[in-house]
Design brief:
By secondary structure, this protein is mostly helical. It is 56% helix and 0% strand. The protein is built from four helices and no strands. The radius of gyration is 11 Å and the shape is globular. 18% of the residues are buried. It comes from Alteromonas aestuariivivens.
Length: 79
């Protein structure tokens, strides 16, 4: 499974949405599932899947799928 596929699957698993929902334009609080609680579940899932520990600023800044990709790149995850 590619890192892109892992990212999409992490969003699906954490937020309980279909893979068709997950695209670069998906943003925090634009769907019911991605609220503050969903955000923390998503952070935990991304940390587990990619074996990283996101710092607080990155957790706060992760406001979209596109931004999540940028943040993960800082931790050496190529997407």
């Amino acid at each position: 499974m590619s890192n892109q596929q892992k990212l999409v699957q992490a969003f699906c698993d954490a937020l309980g949405v279909s893979s068709q929902t997950v695209n670069d334009e998906l943003q925090y609080n634009t769907i019911r599932e991605w609220d503050s609680t969903g955000h923390m579940v998503l952070v935990s899932e991304l940390e587990t899947v990619f074996n990283v520990m996101l710092d607080t600023d990155d957790i706060i800044d992760m406001s979209s799928v596109a931004k999540a990709k940028t943040i993960l790149a800082k931790y050496g995850v190529s997407l």
